[in-house]
Amino acid sequence: MAKAQASVEELVGMIERRELRLPEMQRRFVWRSTRVRDLLDSLYRGYPSGTILLWESDEEVPTHEFAVEQTEDPIHGVRLLLDGQQRLTSLSAVIRGRPVTVRNRKRPIEILFNLEHPDHLVGVTEVNEESDVDDELVVDVDEEANEDELQRRFDRMTFVLATNKLAARSTWVKVSEVFRTDEDAVFLKRAGVERIDDPRYSRYSSRLSRLRAIRAYEYRMDILERSLSYDEVTEIFVRVNSLGAKLRSSDLALAQITAKWPHSLAIFEGFQSECRNAGFDLDLSIHLKNLVAFATGQSRFLTVGGLSRERLEKAWKLSRDGMEFALNFLKTNLSLDSPTLLSSPFLLVTLAYWGHQHEYRLSPEDEASLRFWALVSNAKGHYSRGSSETILDQDLAVLRDGNGMGELIDRLRLQVGRLNVTPDDLEGRNARSALFKTMFLAFRSANAKDWFSNLTIALDHAGVTHRLQFHHIFPKAVLKAGYTSRDADDIANLAFIAGKTNRSIAAKPPKTYLPAVRTDQGDAPFATQCIPMDPELWEVAEYKRFISNRRILIADRLNEYLEHE
Length: 565
What we know:
By secondary structure, the chain is of the alpha+beta class. Helix content is 48%, strand content 10%.
């Protein structure tokens, strides 16, 4: 194995010129913006950043594009990138100022650099930046943040994710703009530095130079020789990533599958795109787990190495039919029209396998039992407790052995206890609970509407005005005295309303705004979202009693929705 070195600038150029390509075994990944921020911080300080693993091959190897634009034709030989993809994709996007493609959507990676950052190191965990996770059920903007405190935290950072407020400040500069030029004047002038004898002049210039020096950071490259076969390189890829736990088991399984079945990744991603267009944007790992379940009767990826191409191809066709059944059943029979409403996507694998085992023929009794099992499993977080893969394999074994829904329901009861919901089940739960998703479904089923627009609550309303948010009935600001943040985030303090409605209420106490809603809209907004209508309970002093009463109402509504007897 040969050794070499290349600077970040050289590697970015190789990606641009398509001299670096991704073999099919290497899935296209993009780091979350927070990880890109942390990478820049490490390189800025000269910290070690791992190695790059390449393969020079004369074989005709299936490849695919990076998530960042590649604009030129190669002028040298092509090398295949086996390890280091996420780092180099991130650096290419930031240094060239180009967007990355994530789930068929282009988005920029915008990082800001603080010219006034402290000289001492501040750990990234010390600042609680807003998460860039975009798959939450709804958005919470109800919290009254202390902007001064938040700003002080940001000022202690060297790199942060871009926001309009920070970008407008003179001492924060866009990293991509710094890389675009070697001139400091525009950044210094914007920061109010116009004289060379200004003490900030040398400090800011030195920091801008140090930032640009990231382009010269040298990575060590390990280059696998041409004599290796694709199968051997796949084995090396799996071993390297297994030892470092850098990739998920599904990604290592994909490498083994594509080695046996070339060009299969395009087939998998094509079906993934079809599901996305139907409203279910699922991670590829779920489709692969479904494939393995249909090929082996269990869900563990450890068995992939022993499967032949013929068996994989046959199982894929069957698993695709099963997934289509599962998605159709969710949308039409359960009115569960978004993957964000699932407590676990593993539910889809069991539904797909059940449909296949019954040749997609459902009697009315079958449909009712399957519907009940799916709703309760989702509400109780069936696949979110303990070892989810073990639970899934046990369910698949029940179906593989020819047992029916009765045994699946019995197994569920053994795991979660009662199949109904009690007020105690809601205690201590918040918006991340599986029951919160079911609460939304139950309220929507009861025709809950926004308190101002009267639009039925939904996840897909267009526009910021009508986008669904969860609202703290007792805003956090009014609960600051005597209650913890956990108290305020209790599931029984949450309701679903539109963004504009939420903003108009802001931090008003319920005794102020709820009577006005009742006068304008009547009791329906309260009844459909299980809000106690006794005005005495709307007093801050009665918060605990309000929560207790509403838990009873919510539990009753959930049981009605789940059709529990």
